[in-house]
Amino acid sequence: MMEYENGKKRKVRNKQQVKGQFLSQRYLILCVCCFFVLLFFLSSDRISTLSVRSDSLRPSLRVPALSVLSSSMDSFHGGRFPALSVEDRVQFPDHLLLILSHGIGRGEKNLVCVYRGLKEETLVLPSISSDEFDEFRSIVRCPNAPLNYSSSVELQFRGDLVKKMKKEKQSRRRVHNWEKVGYEAVIDGDTVVVFVKGLTRRPHRESDPSYYKCQFEIGDLEEKEVTQAIAAAQEVVRCVLPESLKLNPEMMFRVSVIHIDPRGRTTPALPSVARIYASDSIEKKKSGVKHELCVCTMLWNQAPFLREWIMYHSWLGVERWFIYDNNSDDGIQEEIELLSLENYNVSRHVWPWIKTQEAGFSHCAVRAKEECNWVGFFDVDEFYYFPTHRSQGLPSKDALKSLVSNYTSWDLVGEIRTDCHSYGPSGRTSVPSQGVTVGYTCRQANAERHKSIIRPELLTSSLLNEVHHFQLKEGVGHMSLVESVAVVNHYKYQVWDTFKAKFYRRVATYVVDWQENQNQGSKDRAPGLGTEAIEPPDWKRRFCEVWDTGLKDLVLSNFADQVTGYLPWQRQQQE
Question: Which member of 112, 236, 335, 534 has the greatest number of CB atoms within 10 A?
């Protein structure tokens, strides 16, 4: 018994000694860490800044490097944290797109683009813009490389010393040609939809999927897996998901497309910047019932007009908005944040790919399928209107939502089409302060084209669309509304200062830009205009055949403040 007690005491003493030694070591380590942290901040030339992403509110901290510790802190790229790691570069006609493997926050203004000359001389130019890209990556736009300089551009923060170029794998420095690259991918059930340039330019037709395969690369590893395509059309290829994706739920996959010619010869996989994340394959349970009606649009620099469009269509019953932003620089994100604060369910999706409206709509149809019964595809200058409701004194509030809900249980109706009336400048020379619905009241007599609201689950697997409508599954049809029931007021020809922006670039893939001397008789163009943005003397009087104040009267009677007469989308600028 005595030996047992002595042994127990020895164990306690030993345990206390070990514990004391452990605490001493921890205290020593803690002191060393505190010393270095103190030394770090004392050597800083300025206080670091926080750059917060708007969607996830994840801070991206930039900290000056400590010169005395530079040898052991190489990860502080250029004296900042996180390291500016350029993952991919895509060459567009008018700029160079850099894709970073991490987030830097939207609107970072202290980035510069570093170009290397033939003799290793360097040139530093300000970046054009920066933005968040997806949950993990960011993008930066740089000017095109000047003559005799490489397009393998690097990034640095303004004021940092230009460093000698690091030796990297050739694949990390290559520049992809926009005309031949995989640019987006999205998981849809047990398949992946890949968006790619350079395979086929056949508009409005499906392709034989047996000529295509998808290649999946796991992270930065050399492992690859190939699966067969099951549908293809225009710039879309749909393939089966690989088994390796299910086995690596935390991994990122780079997805590219392989083409097989009619003789059975396989070409190398096209370059790709498209990524999918295995975690996205896990079906996300949505709480509650789906939204009855959502809207998707693609825009460029339409922030001043967004508020009126969303407020009005929300009144008609639209519940959810998907905004595909095609390189706007007019404060669109700030406008969306203001609308969100007012409880409008609006999300912005960065879409840097020029002239890919059809692909963007296909991408949105996949995203919206889990949230929405119906999805409308129309532009910010297009407004639904119900003439019969107005003439018969019926309430127009929630009219659009009520219309589509009548067909939700009809499995044979996958699309509702509505004709458009195009409005002209209506004698105006300046932007109407009360918005387009009140300011433009003279239109052309005949309707042209149509806009569609679709059921995402009733589309073909190829997601083939012509912007104005999608191809539906076999046996599923569409419903065309007569003009007396519903019409889309298309404020297409606005005052010249607004309209001339259309000359910059058209967003649809198969529509020629107006600066080009092609298809000048196309309905997409304004009749009588050439290839230059020169205002005709009689512009304000053009496209005016019928004075139609129906929607104007509806808006003023339902939205105007009874005391001031202001409309809700005016109030921000009036205050």
Answer: 236
